[in-house]
Design a protein that fits this description.
InterPro entries: ATPase_NBD, ROK. The structure is a single chain. The chain is built from 9 helices and 14 strands. It is α/β, with parallel strands linked by helices. β5 (78-79) and β6 form a beta hairpin. α5 (198-207) packs across α7 (229-253) and α7 (229-253) packs across α8 (268-278).
Length: 312
């Protein structure tokens, strides 16, 4: 019997998904993007999540298989251990606030006879945030493999982070911020999230009077690569902010490497020199993930493996 798991990266607009085999590898042609339907009713959201699970299961061409689990990279605030969403006030997933998503989805799946027959005896539904799953995937299969201690930073709409030692996520320890999250830690005039994010890049552009029609980081990156002086300066300054923001965490956690992921790290070549400029520890390795989404999916497979071991 061949074993598969299904991974989901949940956003406010879209849900990305992939099927993974027992080795944690993504099954060819299983990557798919669905609308998130995050503004639906409670029933609508649950129905949709179950529909996507069934769709992905139906795409498995293997004749003899079972599903060992489903894992979600879910945005916060969220109680990942219990599977309860606390998202509110942002017009997304409002209707499932305070509900146990694990129980609701599990109960619906058990009513689907075609899926139920494919559930393995150890079947589980697990949740974590995307930065933690990115870290697990990178450590097991990607750039973080050779490092005992690493800080993971995903830069996109905000600053996601995770701290890892010997393959285990460190969330509650004196040398890391609470939950391993740096986004809400004080930095300059406010918090890190306001600086190490798309918002942070656009704020810098505004400060140096550099404007694009579409307000996209990718457009600014093209300008910088085309030798626009202001755009090059912008990414240098952004790198400076990343280095300065990381310094206190590097000092306490003492990692061997910083692993970067997220949409904005595609412009790493433009800001990396700026990072090293303000970094107090110049010898630390800074490595960029090849594909953040792929690592996040593989992290789901890893989380299910760890979870199954604990239960077993």
């Amino acid at each position: 019997m061949n074993k598969y798991s299904i991974a989901f990266d949940v956003g406010g607009l879209f849900i990305k998904s992939a099927v993974l085999d027992s080795e944690g590898e993504i099954v060819p042609d299983s990557y798919a993007i669905f609308p998130s339907k995050s503004k639906e009713t409670k029933e609508g959201i649950i129905e949709h999540l179950v529909f996507i699970i069934k769709q992905q299961t139906n795409g498995i061409l293997d004749r003899n298989f079972e599903i060992t689990g489903v894992g979600y990279a879910f945005p916060g605030p969220f109680d990942y251990e219990e599977g309860i969403s606390y998202i509110k006030g942002i017009d997304k997933f409002e209707e499932i606030y305070g509900l146990n998503l694990r129980e609701l989805v599990m109960n619906r799946l058990k009513q689907e006879s075609s899926f139920y027959s494919k559930m393995s005896s150890e079947f589980q539904i697990v949740f974590d945030n995307d930065a933690s799953l990115f870290a697990l995937g990178e450590y097991a299969y990607g750039e973080a493999k050779g490092y005992n201690k690493a800080i993971f930073l995903t830069i996109g709409t905000g600053a996601g982070s995770a701290f890892m030692e010997n393959g285990m996520l460190i969330k509650e320890r004196q040398d890391v911020p609470e939950s391993g999250w740096i986004y809400n830690q004080p930095f300059k005039q406010s918090i890190i999230d306001d600086y190490i994010s798309k918002r942070g890049v656009l704020k810098l552009a505004d400060e140096i009077d550099l404007h694009t029609t579409d307000q996209e980081v990718a457009t600014l990156a093209v300008m910088a690569r085309n030798e626009d002086v202001k755009a090059k300066m912008l990414f240098q300054m952004f790198g400076n902010n990343i280095g300065a923001a990381l310094n206190p965490f590097i000092a306490t956690f003492k990692p061997d490497a910083i692993i970067l992921g997220g949409q904005i790290t595609k412009s790493k070549d433009l800001f990396i020199a700026g990072v090293y400029e303000t970094l107090e520890n110049k010898t630390i390795s800074i490595v960029c993930s090849a594909e953040t989404s792929v690592s996040t999916f593989k992290g789901v497979a890893r989380l299910l493996q760890q979870s199954n071991k604990r239960m077993g």
